[in-house]
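Regression test case RT-17, inverse folding.

Input:
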């Protein structure tokens, strides 16, 4: 099964780094968004298996990254979400993992920070 991924981050540079890592794992990038509202539209359009989600983005049309997370998990519980954030607190990490995040990566994004996500992605998508 080809893993279709949606990258959500307000930084074009970070999106490029995430794209590099996901494509090296043979994921197909179906869209990129710089805010949660645009990501929700792309989610409905492409129905990705995987979403990477930055938590610290400006709200657009009063939709936050956390609201996007909750909407996706409610409407498509099998869609995996990897949270990527500059917030390093264990309390926040635990909150999202309890809510169903596949992983929680603390920025900066690099090959080392992506290592745990790679293992979790391989378990979630055995053909990866």
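Golden output:
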């Amino acid at each position: 099964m080809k893993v279709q991924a949606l990258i959500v981050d307000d930084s074009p540079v970070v999106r490029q780094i995430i794209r590099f890592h996901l494509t090296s794992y043979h994921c197909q990038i179906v869209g990129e968004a710089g805010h949660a509202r645009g990501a929700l539209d792309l989610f409905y359009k492409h129905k990705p298996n995987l979403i990477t989600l930055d938590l610290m983005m400006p709200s657009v049309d009063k939709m936050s990254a956390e609201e996007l997370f909750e909407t996706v998990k409610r409407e498509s519980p099998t869609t995996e979400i990897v949270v990527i954030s500059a917030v390093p607190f264990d309390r926040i990490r635990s909150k999202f993992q309890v809510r169903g995040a596949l992983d929680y990566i603390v920025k900066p994004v690099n090959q080392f920070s992506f290592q745990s996500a790679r293992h979790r992605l391989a378990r979630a998508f055995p053909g990866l």
